[in-house]
Amino acid sequence: MRKVRLVLIAFLVVAGFTQEIVWVKILPPPDGWMDVAVDSRNNVIVSVNPWIVKFSPEGESLWARRVLHPYGNITQWVATDPEDNIITGKTTSESSLAVVKFTSNGDSLWCWDTVFPSPFWGMDDIATNHNGYVQVTGGYNVLQYGWITIQLTPDGHTHWVRTFSSNWGPDGAKGVCTDHLNNVIIGGSRGIYPRPRQWFPQLIKYSKNGETLAEVIYDPYPFPANLDGLGVATDRDGNMYLCGGGQIYDTILRPGYRWFGAFLFKYDPEGDPLWQWFSDTSEGWYRFTSCATDTLGNIYAAGSKAWDNRMSIILRRFKPSGELVWTFYYPLGEDLSPQLAIIAIDQEGNIIAVAPGKIGSLPVGYVLKIADVPGIAEGKEGCERSNLLLSTIINSAEVKRLTFPPDVRVEVYDTNGRLAQKLGEDRVFPLSAGVYFLRLESEGYPLTRKVVVTKTNNWSFTP
């Protein structure tokens, strides 16, 4: 049994992880952005304004509800509470917003709305805590805009309202989430006096009763910057994450140099920085618009990126220490502007991603369920899509080196069951493009995995 465990561990370590698409759903084009949430049973709830659609974990459509309001429809966001009720919020006019609560079956429970005395910038996110309280956040018109966060009781009454303004601007809140203690974390951007027309990522943490617990700003002083803080998340330990993107200008060491890309920051529960990740400028410009964590503390960040005249979802997974584990792409269509890609993680660690896109010239809304499973490949640019309604594998693989314990027998078979290679000592085995089956065996215990190779690779096996 000890050696059997060695085989399994070795395979997981050397093979890494692959991202397998479990299912893809195509919805009507949203009026604005899309949002996604999952409930305790791994059902998937998607807002595709003005609709709320609920899918089973297997991708079966359960029901759809059209959400209307007398003031109209502009944007829409969605969350679930501990009882699997569904809460949706939206900006209903230039000076109003509304929140509607449904049962898990889609029956309406209550509607909360408010009107502001001056033009309202917009609601940008919604969340719930472990006690069923609802949090909404966005921007409002105070000088050059500001932040507003409202917490509602489970029965739809205002619990507290908090605002923030730098009195310099431009300011705006973009993301909200809650931690295991029901504290409320808000992410967005703000100006810093006296730096004109520059803005910087900021995170504010409130207690469940609305007291300010932490306020964190990232300022790359002395360099000018325009950085948008967008998505927020917390992990099981109460650490906080803020993602986004933008530009930083080097006016001192390398005049004219500009960094532009995506970032992800991690802070401890007190707001002290733990690590920062910035994308490589050689990858081209993109930004993260959403982030989430799983039960193990892994972090996922998503956005959209142009590649070969196509727009794709870009999804990245990080270890709790900040190390990048993998990158995954999925095409959204041609000639698109950057899209707001939103993700959620279900109880089994699957990733649900939504984003507007196109099929040909037809606008649509994409919903993807992605499994993070042991495998060989890493998703790359230029990935191909087979059937939109069936499980799809990203057919791009790059295998560099596989290492096995000395008592493991390894064989490679083709799709006809013929032995393609039997591995020996210190030998290099080039494989042509195709589908193969990798068989590992130790003391009579077999393990078989499918391998997809799209270009010739030199495989170096060390027994």
Rg (CA only): 24 Å
- What is the number of beta strands? 36
Number of helices: 1
Structural class by sheet pairing and helices: mainly beta
- Contiguous low-pLDDT stretches (5 residues minimum) are 1-17, 374-404, 424-430, 454-463
Alpha-carbon distance between the termini?
20 Å
Oligomer: single chain
- The order of strands across the largest sheet is 26-27-28-1-29
Mean pLDDT: 80
Largest sheet: 5 strands, antiparallel
- CA-based shape: globular
Percentage of residues in helical conformation: under 10%
Strand content: over 45%
Question: Could you please describe the fold and organization of this structure?
Answer:
With 463 residues, the chain is mainly beta. It has one helix and 36 strands. The strands form nine sheets. The protein has a five-stranded antiparallel beta sheet. The protein has a four-stranded antiparallel beta sheet with strand order 2-3-4-5, with no helix packed on it. Strands 6-7-8-9 form a four-stranded antiparallel beta sheet, with no helix packed on it.
Care to give the gist of this entry?
The protein is mostly beta strands.
Protein topology:
Elements: H1 2-15, E1 17-27, E2 34-38, E3 44-48, E4 51-55, E5 61-66, E6 77-80, E7 86-93, E8 96-102, E9 108-115, E10 120-128, E11 134-140, E12 146-152, E13 158-164, E14 172-178, E15 184-190, E16 200-206, E17 212-217, E18 225-234, E19 240-250, E20 257-267, E21 273-278, E22 286-293, E23 299-307, E24 310-318, E25 324-334, E26 342-345, E27 351-359, E28 362-374, E29 392-393, E30 401-403, E31 409-414, E32 419-422, E33 427-431, E34 434-442, E35 445-453, E36 457-462
Parallel strand pairs: 30-36
Antiparallel strand pairs: 1-28, 1-29, 2-3, 3-4, 4-5, 6-7, 7-8, 8-9, 10-11, 11-12, 12-13, 14-15, 15-16, 16-17, 18-19, 19-20, 20-21, 22-23, 23-24, 24-25, 26-27, 27-28, 31-32, 31-34, 33-36, 34-35
